[in-house]
Specification:
The complex is a heterodimer of chains A (about 290) and B (about 350). Chain A is an all-alpha fold. Chain A has one domain (about 1-280). Chain A is built from 11 helices and 2 strands; from the N terminus they run ααααββααααααα. Chain A has a two-stranded antiparallel ribbon. The longest helix of chain A is centred in the N-terminal third of the chain and has 31 residues, at about 1-30. The termini of chain A are far apart. Chain B has about 350 residues and is mainly α. Chain B is built from 14 helices and 4 strands. Chain B folds into 3 domains: about 1-35; about 40-265, no CATH class; about 265-348, no CATH class. In chain B, strand 1 (about 145-150) and strand 2 form a beta hairpin. Helices cover about 75% and strands about 5% of the residues of chain B. The chains are: A mainly alpha (about 290), B mainly alpha (about 350). Chains A and B meet through helix 3, helix 4, helix 9 and helix 11 of A and helix 5, helix 11 and helix 13 of B. Chain B: Pfam families: BPD_transp_2.
């Protein structure tokens, strides 16, 4: 019984974190067909921003959250202006891969910049919630509950932004058909900027939550990003609700495998599952076969 | 450069052959002269490393630049070649040359399995699947702790675990040339690289290479014209893997060691950066890219901590400003000049 609760607590906490990371990736993929390899380093940027705001500047922790989201959004915007827009302008069928390689370069650069500024020593995270609660035979730290709640609030806000606002409508229109949206007067460039800004803000908040259960290091985003990619793929790239479901599902499976077979097998089993899913359904579980433009 | 040959008439194809041959001879003369001119053993060692990277990049270019398959399992294939060589030499006492050959065959089989798994996938999904496969192999090797053999008081895992294999034999140059063994190894590695380079030239210019390019440029049309995607894709996975695995075996035999670090993301990125900077889909791109990046890397060695930062930004800047790489840009430039020279005669 206590094992079940432990699996649920770990799985749900990780699921919430993965869902946030996956959402940012999937949003960018869905609207512009771009796989943002710099997403992991943007998570790290968020984690370090809360450290700067709350520890170095001495401001309250909630200000750190805002700082992290803002830093992520600004970086996302810069990424669009400096890298993505010129590549989109150049056009051609190579965009998918060239943007992947370019963002990989940006990711290496950002991680190293963080390393140079903050040093390689792991830093403690100022955002922490002490205490825990007894759940039957198991224990749930309050921190995990807060992470799940914050993640759900952020997801709800994102859902509202996408579904109800004018900006969200523009994003969805651009994702469906870029040229049609452009002809209908949607400012596609500004929409792309907003998408990357939003994804950056998501990454910033996710980074804060993530570093609260681990520690701050420049590569803290690498592992969650890899898993987020996997979840995106399982759900079908660009499918936001599917991504959230896949994140929770896979996190629970990973936690269960780790408890049952040992920590060594958690990730490999996950990867093998994904390989099997991809062979069985080449466009992901919830993805539809897309017609490729020629 | 040579890439455009397929779209041009036969005479242009022949001039492309002449162009490639001329560049090849210059490259070969420089490469052969290098060990006699350069005194420093460190530099020759770096040249050997450069030849390894160039060999992997040439094969990745065949896969991505010509066949349009964005595979991230390239370093895993390389590792299978290296590990195959090391394990056959360690456990079965294979002669190093035979082990290298068998390692390359193993790499081919591995890669064809990966190719089978990728057959129904497109674009980024191929990238993610190949990445997942190589991550699984890496994780299973690194976390392997079960003892397979006891050597003295230390235990060795079947896959070598986190430390990998070492001292399973070398090219025999230490006995043959003594102090000059680095130069001997350089010769062997250079021969291996030339084999890789020439075979990729032959493949690119054969009907098979045309089929690769046709599938890359417009898959539906290529299939409608009777190109068998199944055969062609398996073939390109197999061929590029054979030479990648061969390079892996040579790498293992040169360093007399192979470990899980060859799987690292940064190595893979370096290979991709080489191909991108030089120009994907161009024959000389990977070679030129290796030279540029190795030199840049050496120059930034003085900058110490800023080296990785510089390398990352360099990749991004190249992709944004020179999307077709140096070679692609150069050939565009040459075409423009030729067109300008031809234009006045027609216009006046």
């Amino acid at each position: 019984m206590d094992v079940t609760i432990a699996i649920l607590v770990t799985g749900l906490t990780n699921g919430a974190l993965y869902a946030l990371a996956t959402l940012g990736l999937s949003l960018v993929w869905g609207s512009m067909g771009m796989l943002n390899m710099a997403h992991g380093s943007m998570l790290a940027l968020g984690g370090y921003m809360v450290f700067t705001v709350a520890v170095s500047l001495g401001l309250p922790v909630w200000a750190g959250f805002i700082g992290a989201a803002a830093a992520g959004a600004v970086f996302g915007g810069l990424l669009y202006l400096g890298v993505v827009r010129p590549l989109l302008k150049a056009g051609g069928p190579g965009f998918e891969t060239s943007v992947m390689i370019a963002t990989v370069g940006i990711a290496i650069g950002l991680e190293n910049a963080l390393l140079l500024v903050y040093g390689g020593r792991p830093l403690p995270q100022p955002f922490a919630v002490p205490g825990s609660v007894q759940l039957g035979a198991g224990v749930m730290p309050w921190l995990n509950a807060v992470i799940v709640i914050v993640a759900f609030v952020v997801m709800a806000v994102m859902g509202y932004l996408i579904a109800k606002t004018k900006m969200g409508r523009a994003i969805r229109a651009t994702a469906q058909n870029r040229d049609a949206a452009l002809l209908m007067g949607v400012p596609v460039e500004r929409t792309y900027l907003q998408v990357l800004g939003l994804a950056g803000a998501l990454a910033g908040i996710c980074g804060v939550l993530l570093s609260s259960i681990t520690q701050l290091s420049p590569t803290l985003g690498a592992d969650p990003m890899l898993k987020a990619f996997i979840m995106c793929v399982v759900a079908g790239l660009g499918n936001l609700p599917g991504a959230v479901i896949a994140a929770f599902g896979l996190a629970l499976i990973e936690a269960a495998v780790q408890f049952a077979l040992g920590a060594r097998w958690g990730f490999p089993v996950l990867l093998m599952l994904v390989i099997a899913i991809l062979i069985w359904r080449p466009n992901g579980l919830f993805g539809r076969a897309q017609i490729r433009r020629m | 450069m040579s890439d455009t040959s397929s779209r041009l008439p036969v005479s242009a194809g022949r001039s492309a052959l002449r162009g490639d041959l001329a560049i090849g001879v210059v490259f070969l003369v420089c490469a052969i002269a290098a060990p006699f001119v350069i005194e420093s053993k460190y530099l020759i060692g770096q040249l050997i490393v450069g030849l390894f990277w160039a060999g992997i990049a040439v094969q990745w270019n065949l896969l991505f630049g010509y066949a349009g398959i964005f595979s991230l399992a390239q370093m895993a294939v390389f590792a299978v070649g290296g590990y195959g060589t090391a394990m056959l030499a360690t456990y079965l006492g294979f002669n190093i040359w035979l082990a290298i050959f068998c390692g390359a065959v193993l790499a081919t089989l591995f890669s064809m399995l990966v190719g089978l798994a990728c057959l129904r996938l497109q674009g980024v999904y191929v990238a993610l699947l190949t990445f997942a496969i190589s991550s699984v192999v890496y994780l299973l090797i690194v976390t392997d702790t079960a003892c397979f053999q006891m050597i003295g008081t230390t235990c060795r895992q079947f896959t070598g675990g986190a430390s990998g294999f070492s001292r399973f034999g070398d090219f025999g140059m230490r006995q043959l040339l003594r102090g000059d063994w680095v130069r001997g190894n350089y010769g062997i590695v250079l021969a291996g690289f030339l084999l890789t380079l020439i075979s990729s030239w032959v493949i690119i210019h054969s009907p098979m290479g045309l089929a690769f390019k046709a599938l890359r440029d417009n898959q539906s049309y290529a299939i409608a014209r009777g190109i068998n995607r199944f055969h062609t894709q398996l073939l390109v996975f197999g061929i590029s893997a054979f030479f990648t695995g061969l390079t892996g075996g040579l790498y293992a035999a040169h360093f007399q060691a192979i470990g899980p670090s060859v799987f690292s993301m940064s190595t893979l990125l370096f290979i991709m950066a080489i191909a991108v900077v030089g120009g994907t889909g161009t024959f000389w791109g990977p070679v030129l890219g290796t030279i540029v990046l190795m030199v840049a890397d050496e120059l930034m060695r003085d900058a110490g901590q800023f080296r990785t930062l510089g390398l990352g930004l360099l990749i991004a800047v190249f992709v944004v400003l020179l999307p077709r790489g140096i070679v692609g840009r150069l050939s565009d430039f040459l075409t423009t000049i030729r067109a300008r020279r031809a234009a006045p005669q027609q216009g006046d």
